[in-house]
Amino acid sequence: MNLRFISRSRPVGAARLSFIALLLLVLALVPLRAAWAAAGDVPAAFADKIAPEAWRKLQAGEISDVLVLFEDAAIDAEVAARLSLRALQKEDTAITQLRVDRYRTLKTRVLAELPLAEVELRRDFRHLPMAYLHLRDRAALLRLLARGEVAAVYENTVLYAQLAEVLPLIGQPQVNQAMGRNGSGAAVAILDTGLDYTRAEFGSCTAPGVPAGCRVVAAFDAAPEDNVRDANGHGTWVAGTATAVAPGAGIIAIDVFDGTSASSVDVIEGIDWAIANRVAYNIVAINMSLGDGAKYTSSCSSKFSNPYRQPIIDARNAGILSIVSSGNNGYSDGISNPACTPEAVSVGAVYDANVGARTWTSPEPDCTDSTSAADKVACFSNSASFLTLLAPGALTTVTGVTAAGTSLSSPVVTGAVALLAQAYPGDTAVSRLGRLTANGKPVTDARNSLIKPRVDVLAAQGAPVNDTFAAATVISGGSGSVNGWNLNATQESGEPVHAAVSGGKSVWWQWTADVSGTLSLDTHGSGIDTLLAVYTGGSVSTLQAVSANDNDGSAGNASGIGLAVTAGTVYRIAVDGKAAASGALSLAWSVLQAQTITFAPLDDMPVNSAFNLNATASSGLSVSFGSQTPAICTVAGNVVSLLATGTCTLAASQSGGSGYGAAPGVTQSFSVTPLAQTISFPPIASQTLETAPFTVAASASSGLPVSIVSLTPAVCSISAYTVSLLDAGLCTLEASQTGDSQTSAASAVMQTFSVATASGGGNDGDVPLPPWALLLLGGGLLAAMRKRLV
Question: pTM for the whole thing?
Answer without folding.
Answer: 0.74
